[in-house]
């Protein structure tokens, strides 16, 4: 273990502080040369919708959209829970650049393949 890192995020505007800190940690992991994935589920899937994160800015941190863009640009992956996304009425056409709609099996694969991965949840 040691080459991968997972951040599981279940919040969006309902807890912008947690959503922001999750992407701060994800950026730190990807900057540390870890294969890093953010898994968005439940309310967190809103962040995978184009334009949703614009305007979210917690004091003391960079704007959330900026953190998300930096994460993807650095090679981080954003996986979006398919049932959670569909439950909220979103379609694949609405997914942000760098976001991939996946089933739970993809999360399990990431966490267990190649020696596994630590996972932190917000």
- CA-to-CA gap between the ends? 21 Å
Radius of gyration: 13 Å
Query: What's the mean pLDDT score?
Result: 96
Low-confidence stretches: none
CATH names the topology as Hypothetical Protein Ychn, Chain: A
- Secondary structure class reads alpha/beta
Can you identify the CATH superfamily? DsrEFH-like
Query: Using DSSP, what is the number of strands?
Result: 5
Residues in helix, %:
25-40%
Give a verbal description of the structure.
- The protein has four helices and five strands; from the N terminus they run E-H-E-H-E-H-E-H-E.
- It has one domain (4-121): DsrEFH-like (Hypothetical Protein Ychn, Chain: A).
- The chain has 122 residues and is α/β, with parallel strands linked by helices.
- The protein has helices at residues 16-31, 64-73, 82-87, 104-112, and strands at residues 4-9, 35-40, 77-81, 99-102, 119-121.
- The chain has a five-stranded parallel beta sheet.
Give me the secondary-structure topology.
Elements: E1 4-9, H1 16-31, E2 35-40, H2 64-73, E3 77-81, H3 82-87, E4 99-102, H4 104-112, E5 119-121
Parallel strand pairs: 1-2, 1-5, 2-3, 3-4
In short:
By secondary structure, this protein is an alpha/beta fold.
Identify the notable features of this structure and list them briefly.
122 residues; alpha/beta; Hypothetical Protein Ychn, Chain: A; five-stranded parallel sheet; 4 helices
